Structures are given as structure tokens and as C-alpha cells.
Amino acid sequence: MNAYRLFIISSAFFGLVALSGNAFAIQDTVKVGDFPRDIDFDPKLNNLYVPNYESGTISIIDASTMIIKDTVIINEGNSNPTRIAIDYKQHLIYVTDKISGILSVIDGINGKVIKSIKIGESLWDIALNENNKKLYISDLIKNEIMILDTENFEVIKSIFINSSPWAITINQNTDKTYVASGTSEAIHIIDGNTDELINDINPGVKPWGLSINEKTNVLYITSWDSNAITVLDLQNEQVIFEIPITSGAWQMNTNQNNGITTISNEHSNELYLLDENSKKIQTISVFDSPQSMIISPTANIIYVANPLSNSISAVSYDYDHYTLTPIIEEVISNNNSVNDELILEVIEGISNIPQREDIDTDMISGLLKNLGVTGEFDGNGIARILLDDYNKKKELQPKTAVIPTWTMDLAMMFSNDLENKPQPKEINCDEEFFFPINDIDKVNPYEIWVNILPICALS
Fold it and tell me: Do strands 113-118 and 102-107 pair parallel, antiparallel, or not at all (unpaired)?
């Protein structure tokens, strides 16, 4: 058994818990124009702005009531508004057009189109650098990223990209723009100060959607035909790991205030929520095939565009942000040598230990309920499984192992006595210490987490 799997089990106990799986959510939906392709939110005006691709309109929605306040017609309806970006300080709405190559600018307060300029052939994604007041716009036909000065609405530079500049995201902390090349395994990096292409990253997939968590400095990458979210460390520009999902992920959006990232999956009709540690904390089932989305920066609400049903949904979800967020990936990862039910039963068994009065019992009860744990705790069974894993690689194991601090945190949750006792820094890894147990109530919790779940096997 590897260290990651046991750490998943343990971390559910010493942090505050939120679980993956279908989360409780309330969905409120409003009909808009034909094929809403994007959505953005001006929190100061409390307005949602939705480009309706086939109607040639922008729907303005009150984010609190989900009632349409206004419908803006662009170019007398002879347009295909595609993607939008909002200048929140000036309340300006920038809209691309995939068919005409026209960029439109809308006054977000009065809903009037104040400028429409043709700058390309097939404008797709758009992002605003809040620091240098520049718009970065992708052109799918010309394979370019156009950089537009919002002071005078002039294109100051065009950067050629080898193929399909699809998604654009900007790290406002570093003034770097990241561009996903949808048909090649490349992410292009543009320096916001020099407007130069400074590097290309190969994420190992054909990137489709991008989002940055500026606090943790990681880049999330979706790929249309991939069954994982790729997580890339922007410091060294290396892939850290992948988060398994069902294929069909469309777009991502990160709330920089609390670190929550939401991913839409139009194939499975689901939204995935990641915490700031890149762990999947919730899966929310929704009614329609979700594509673009925006997260409220002040409330637990995700606003989602559903192009196949010509609607916008407000999905209110139940989640509290904590400083110590545990790993909430699936408790059981792929390991053919381990019985899933026994791993779950060991969690149930731990919960039967008499707990200290100052421990939140609801936390443990909620964990078990959400995991759906059933059956009798089999201490001998779980010990045998751990021993099997240990014996397969015992020749590579050290004779002693350092005791991780989390084992003490777990043990002290269930015992007042351990606080006053000296605790060893290492344990002996001889086989005689890995004994099966018959009665969970009579075993010291320290013995459970050091012996029954052998730390030596984690080394």
C-alpha cells in the first residue's frame, strides 16, 4: 500500500471535512437567447452578461433574482457574439465575434453598444490584463493572439501561434498570459511587459481550457478527449499531477478569493469543485449540459451557460472554506491488492473508539455518512491486507521509520492520556509489530495508527 492512499484516509480525520461525490445544490434557471456561449459577472453591478451566439444579442441578468434586465442587440442582430471579458472598474463589456472578426464594446451600466471594430477574421477567446489595460484576443483563422490597448482601442501587436489559439488566461500577479493551442500539445506564454512570446510548455495533452490559481501559482488544464485535469506548477513549468474525471470537461474558472476552481463537464452534466490544494471536494450534478461558467466572488454560487437548452443556471452549493482543507480525492485509488470495503471499514472502526469530549463528533459522523460505510469492522482483515503489501516490498524497507506527525494528531483526537506521555520519533519495522486485532475498543489509538496501519509500509 502506498503512502498516498493511507494519507487520504488519515487526512479526513484531522482536518475539517468536505466530501467528494454528488453535493447538495440548488439550481435556478432562466431562459436567454439562442446558444449562450459564455458568461461573465460584474459583482459591483450584480449583473450577469451572456453572449447569445445564434441570436446576436447579449442578455443582462440580475444575479440575485435571475431575472433578465435587458437584452442588447449587437449590429442589428447580424452578429455572433462569442466570448466576453469585463473591465469591472469601468463596467465595460468586451465581446468577440467568431464569424465576423468584430470586437464590440458595451457600456455595462446602460447596456449600449459604444464601439464595434473589425480586428480579425475569427475572434474567439478574450482576456483582460487588469494591470496593463490590455486585451488579449485569439483569432482561430489567422492563428494569432492580438493585443489591444483599451485606452484607444487599437491593436498594438499580433503574435503568431502555430495552431488553434483556443483558451486564454492571465496571471494578474505575474503579468503573464497563457494560451492553449487546441490542436497541439502546447501552451504559449506571453510576457505582459514586453508583449513577446517567451516560452512554450508541453503539458502532455491537447489543451482546451485553462485557469490559474494565483495564490498557489498553479495552472489547471482541460483537454476535450482526456479523462483528467492536468495540474501544472507555474514556478518550474512542470506538470505536478492529474485529477481523474470523466472526459468532456469544457471550461474552468477560479475564484481567487477562496481558491475554489470549478470545472464544467457537458458530457456527464456535472460540475467539479477543486479546493486551493487542487483536491476534488465536490461533484455537483446539474440539469443541462454545462459549458462556460463564472463563480461569484462573494457567495457559493456558480453561474453556468447551457447552450443546448438556451439557458443560464445559478447553482448554489454547500461548501465552507477552511484554512486546513484535507485531501478529498476518492478514498480508494486503483490498487488491485487492496479490498475497498475493508479500507472503508477501518474508518468506521476508528469512529467507534471513545472520543475526547472536545472533539467534534459530527465531523466523524458526517464523514461516515457521506462515505456510505456499512458492515462490521474487520481488524484482522485490514491487518492482513497491510501485511501483504508490506511483505511484497519489505526487502526494500528500512529497519526503522520516522513517525509522521499526522499519526499523533489522529491518536490525540481519541485520547487525553497521550498528551502527557513521551512519544517516540521512530518505530521498529520488524514484522512482530504488525499484529492483527480482535477488539477495536480495547486497542490504544496510537497502536492503531502506528501498528495496524504500519508506518513502515509508507516509507
Answer: antiparallel
